[in-house]
Write a structure and sequence with these properties.
This protein is mainly beta and about 240 residues long. The longest helix is centred in the N-terminal third of the chain and has 14 residues. Helix content is about 10%, strand content about 40%. The strands form 4 sheets. Strands 10-9-8-17-12-13-14-16 form an 8-stranded mixed β-sheet, with helices on one face. It has 2 domains: about 110 residues, no CATH class; about 120 residues, L,D-transpeptidase catalytic domain-like (Beta Barrel). Strand 4 and strand 5 form a beta hairpin. The radius of gyration is 17 Å and the shape is globular.
Length: about 240
């Protein structure tokens, strides 16, 4: 597992990143917008999710992720003061709230959180069967990948990395899996989760031909590629999947 060391950000960069993210909420994901950094928030306590600042409570999100136990980190889309409380609009894991499995956002209070920033952004183009990896807004690597088969498609949209998981060599998808906030529209449960989609390897006998569409919805990388990614990618890193 990579060492996770949050980096500080200047106030101007924080505001610029939030304004850009807010402008992108609700936009069609056909074209990926890549900004130099993404403001994220790490939870230090369980948090209630609200429909709006001071509004209806919709759910609760744990401060720990279920597979690794690492701290929950969410992309921040906006900040707003209301009635003496600072509020953050965050992107949520799929199926946390009722309704569509993906793309939901909600509001949490600023208390018991830590703001920082990630400078990586992963963009997967399903039609091209390629993943492009950006750092600070600049393209660093391009990898050929295996994407979902027509009957089990990889969902499109704006997501984020929930957990960075080191897998045993015999586990399908080894050696690493970057579990995403995306959930499958076909599967409700597999691999111990509610149809959770991941970026992972081809180890453990899973295989797959790079540049094809034959997975169950996850995105498979060559062993060298997923190893390179896992050494660099933090929870909260944005992942955009386009057609």
């Amino acid at each position: 597992m990579p060492l996770r060391r949050p980096v500080g950000i200047l106030a101007g960069l924080l505001v610029a990143g939030l304004l850009l993210a807010a402008a992108l909420i609700g936009a069609a994901p056909a074209r990926a917008a890549v900004s130099p950094s993404q403001t994220v928030v790490t939870l230090t306590a369980n948090h209630a999710i609200y429909a709006r600042p001071g509004g209806r409570r919709e759910a609760t999100i744990s401060r720990r992720r279920p597979i690794t136990g690492e701290a929950t980190t969410l992309p921040v889309l906006a900040m707003r003061p209301a009635a003496g409380t600072r509020w953050l609009r965050v992107r949520l894991p799929g199926r946390l709230l009722p309704g569509a499995p993906n793309g939901r956002t909600g509001w949490i209070t600023f208390a018991h959180t830590r703001l920082w920033a990630v400078r990586w952004h992963i963009v997967v183009a399903l039609g091209q069967r390629k993943a492009r990896i950006y750092q600070g807004g600049r393209l660093r690597r391009t990898f050929r990948v295996v994407v979902g088969a027509p009957a089990t498609p990889t969902p499109t949209g704006r997501f984020f990395v929930e957990e960075n998981i080191a897998e045993p060599p015999t586990f399908p998808g080894a050696p690493y899996a970057l579990a995403l906030s995306a959930r499958s529209a076909v599967f409700t449960e597999f691999d111990g989760g509610p149809g959770q989609v991941a970026l992972h390897g081809v180890g453990g006998g899973l295989g797959g031909t790079l540049g094809t569409a034959e997975s169950h919805g996850c995105v498979r990388f060559a062993t060298s590629a997923i190893t390179w990614l896992a050494a660099r990618i933090y929870p909260g890193t944005p992942v955009t999947i386009t057609r």
